[in-house]
Amino acid sequence: MLEFNYLKESNLWWENSHWHEKDFHLSNIEKQKVKWDYNIISSFDEGIFSLRGPRQVGKTSWIKMRIRELATSANPKNIFFYACDNLNKDELEQAIRLFIDFADTGKKYLFLDEIPFVKDWEMAIKHLYDLGKLKDCFVLLCGSNSLDIKRSVERLPGRGDKGKRHFILYPLKFDEYIKARAMDINLTGKIEKDEALLKVYQAELAKLYGEYLLTGGFLRIINEYMETKTISESAYDIYIKWIIGDLAKYNLKEKYAKQVVRRVLETYTSEVSWSTLRAGTDIDTHNTASKYAEALEEMFILEIIYKMEFNKKVPDYPRSKKIYFSDPFILAACQRWVNSSEGYFEKCKAYAAEHADIISEGVILNHIIRMLTEKTKSDLFHYSDVIFYWKNKAKTKEIDFVYNDKAIELKYQSSINPEDYKGIREFKKGYLATKNQFAKDTYPIAPFLLMLKRILDE
């Protein structure tokens, strides 16, 4: 049953202009040494929008920051926030109706957090829309499951026919990470000047990149590491518990998801089929393995890309694929999940030092996906339609990532030789990321990530 008092408790700005001083999320932001404010949605036009992203990335904090800004220019009584994870469809509709009746005339702003956990929530939203209740309303639907919101919003009437409607809040990219860490390298777009700048700061960038491999782009983890120079086991466990909780809410078996994650770790950066992924597990069929891998992708835990059919430049879906973790910290947390080891941070540091090559391959993919997602104006965009890996038929040449006929290859080694460029030469343009070497279109991994936007835009 809907608790009406909770509506007021969730929307303290209705009566108290100093509400933000006691807000849990905003108070935590103020305590953080390392801060970041994502520029995701710049205008709150009428319509139905979605904001998705992994657990613990800061979606609710971002919403509260926007509410704090809105409350200074809009009528605070016309701003509504509700965490919907314990509601049913009827209670959701009841809560929205009560707010609309309570609010004053004029533009209204509704922020509905964790909406995917309300079964058939889209029916409640559609009913309210059909009744004209959502006229002159900005409605933001927020959650950690990628496609559930997107698919459902696309089926709703009146969601708006122009402009981008679906947004994703990702962990910090490396360029954002170093800025949050108070290192601001302003690239000019002039290649010789930028390369000189990156060479001057190469040592500092390499140090920060090593720390990025431990914390990933999660602000909470970055701040804990900055304060204590370690990451507590409880920090890893909190993320694991979120994964387990989300699996349960979607009626997925933890055992199967854990086995899929273990197989991804065992085959990391290698080609796999769904049958390969199932091998060594007690998952019954390759279709079930596929179902769980794709569910983990929708939860922003995994990223799946396909081999490119060279002549057509399209994904070859029936064949093999590669599966990566969506952030270095998520990889580390999943390792702890499947290994259940004690003293984990020291083991994580040792793993990151020994396997910086394969972790970095995933980081490059993470960054390509994030940059293209931020750049696109289309709500139909999915990264697997445009980012591939490639091998020739003889399997003598391969490329880690191909985008728009550009080849991107990681050779995480101290010395580079002409043989390392042989796969790249099959494409119009190619770039090499290395451990520490600069050359033509070749950069150490940290500078490479800072040059990546220019590379993708060329």
Please supply descriptive tags for the structure shown above.
13 strands, Rossmann fold, 15% strand, 2 domains, 8-stranded mixed beta sheet, 46% helix, alpha/beta, 458 residues
List low-confidence stretches.
Answer: none
Structural class: alpha/beta
Kindly give the count of domains: 2
Number of helices: 18
Question: Which band does the percent of strand residues land in?
Answer: 5-15%
- Broad shape: globular
Care to count the β-strands? Answer: 13
**Cα-atom Rg, whole angstroms?**
23 Å
* Helix content class: 40-55%
Give average pLDDT, whole number: 91
Q: How far is it from the N-terminal to the C-terminal residue, by CA?
A: 55 Å
Major sheet: size, sense and barrel closure?
8 strands, mixed
Can you describe what's shown?
With 458 residues, this protein is α/β, with parallel strands linked by helices. The protein folds into 2 domains: 4-168, Rossmann fold; 174-457, no CATH class. Helix content is 46%, strand content 15%. Strands 6, 7, 8, 9, 10, 11, 12 and 13 form an 8-stranded mixed sheet that branches. Strands 2-3-4-1-5 form a 5-stranded parallel sheet, with helices on both faces. The longest helix is centred in the last third of the chain and has 20 residues, at 356-375. The chain is globular and about 70 Å long.
